[in-house]
Amino acid sequence: MSLFITGTDTGVGKTVLTAGLAALLKSRDEPFCVFKPIQTGCPDPAHPEDPEQVKQWVGDSVETFCSYCFPLPVAPYAADPERTIQPRKILQDFKALQAQHKTVLVEGAGGIRVPIANRFEMLDLARMLQLPVVVVARPNLGTINHTLLTVETLLRQRLEVKGVVISGWKPDDPDPSVPSLAETLENFLPVPLLGLLPVLPQQAGSFNAESVRSAFAALNLI
Asked: How many domains is the chain built from?
């Protein structure tokens, strides 16, 4: 099953989830690809940051593809003043990858309302690709509001939301909002809270460890 991975914000763990699912698929010898439609904040277009991070954690054998890459670390719409981004090209690239691979892991940029092109947001991209969506959130104060709003927005657009994953969970976090976070989300979310991913080792090849793969397998996403 192909998935669209979005987040409540930037830096919440979308690439972590993408890499973890990639490691799981790799261990099963299933044909898959990691697709980052748009990467910003990348000075070298030949090496988009997030796909390169996945390769570092999982292995260079992971096939990745990026349709657009921009050096400025801002929203795609702002990073592309010449308006070169064409949603139709992203769709064509996705269909080409889908024809070659059983699973395509699509990682969005930022949150679901991030602007991409004129009157076209990340939300429109998810809808265009017609994929089930997974929402990644961070475990700290403010997450409940951001998560509920993100899921509500997706559901209003009649997108299938597989659930929410909290990434970077620290049971001993001094933040007083953390202990009650999971229970609160489970009571207010209209979709499943799929799991709490702990802080994971992020060295070369570290996502291939059995203990790490087990954490992602427990999410039951693929």
From this structure: 1
